[in-house]
Amino acid sequence: MALIRRVSTLLRADLHALLDQLEEPETLLRQAMREMEESLARDKQACKHLLHEQEMLEQREQEIRKSFTNGGDELDLCFESGQEALARDLIRRRLEAAGLAKALAAKRSRLATHCAELKAAIEQNQSRLEDIRQKSELLCVETTHRRSQEEWPAMEVQIREQEVELELLKEKQKRGLS
Prior knowledge:
- The structure is a single chain.
- With 178 residues, this protein is mainly α.
- The protein has one domain.
- The protein contains five helices and no strands.
- The longest helix is centred in the middle third of the chain and has 68 residues, at 84-151.
- The relative contact order is 0.08.
């Protein structure tokens, strides 16, 4: 069994090495950058949604606060006319509205915290993406340079001593130094 496991491990390693050679790192890097950009776009959209939800909560909270601050005149009227049952109902609605306003304020606060965390993550991921873009550009330049060197192999020209002597004589002849 140990022998089969070892052979299996070797075959898997060879297969992985072959796949690594087949994959183009530039293509994989571009795909990873596209995925990061998509993730950033989703996070930005989620942040916009959170901001919109915060605004809606704030508006609702203001409406509720307005409604129970205007109830003071109605309560005075109830007491003047001796309608304690109606006054109790108004007080109950005021307390419910105050509790709802408090819950909305707490939810808005949690959303603000979550939105701030999301914004910080977006900034951090945006910075990482820019770093990767810069490294990608460097990699592309290095790869292009390496490929150009591969396309133009280093040419080693060997010059014989007789060729040098012959050229020397020709140059002397041109200059009249023979």
